[in-house]
Amino acid sequence: MSHKNEHNPAVRRIVLPSGRMIEVIRYQDKPETGTRELHICPTCESQLVQPVAWSDAGDDRWDLTLECPNCCWTETGNFDRQEVEILEDHLDEGLGEMIADLQRLTHANMIAEIDRFGAALEANLILPEDF
Ligand SMILES: [Zn+2]
Where are the domains of the chain? Predict the structure, then answer.
């Protein structure tokens, strides 16, 4: 199963929770033919599928319970190392983006707080007894 760009299979467009769309270019050193992409929901095609439970099934295979946060699709299955590693790559990418978004949000909140503090000082609304 694949939902990759038809013209260039190495380019993947991902819509982040923040609404921003990014293009991820993958340089593949091995063909993925026949390998299912576990991060893609088979029901709604969301790329945010994540494992909610996993266990080592031995023999380089893993039992995973996958869940789509978008449509609540869920599946438990047994997957090979390559499938799980590809899923991990996507989770790492998602985590990196979330941390970057969080840092931008924290920065924006700090600026807003400093602006409010400055305005309150200007208006003489902050007095020594506030501290
Ligand atoms: Zn879904």
Answer: 38-122
The rounded Å distance from CA 29 to ligand 1 centre is: 29
Which residues have C-beta under 5 Å from ligand 1, the single-atom ion? 41, 43-44, 46, 68, 70-71, 73
Helix (H) or strand (E) holding 51: strand 50-58
CA distance 103 to 14: 20
**Which residue is associated with the tokens 């340089």?**
27
Regions of the chain with pLDDT less than 70: 1-9, 26-34
Q: Answer whether 0.85 is exceeded by the pTM.
A: no
Q: What three-state secondary structure class fits 14?
A: strand
Ligand 1 centre and the CA of 26: distance in Å?
23
